[in-house]
Amino acid sequence: MDGFYGAGTFGSYVGYFPDFGMRLVPAVDSLNNTNGSVTIQMNVPSVKLYSDTVLVSAVISPTPGAGALNITYPSTNRLTSFPGSVPVRVSATGGVTAGVYTLTVTAAGPNGTPVHKRTATLYVSGTISGVGNNVNVVNQYELSQNYPNPFNPTTTIEYNLLLKGEVKLTVYDAVGKEVAKLDLGLQQAGKNSVVFNASTLGSGVYFYKLQSGEFTDTKKMFLLK
Question: Which of 70, 75, 137, 143 is most buried (CB neighbours < 10 A)?
Answer without folding.
Answer: 143
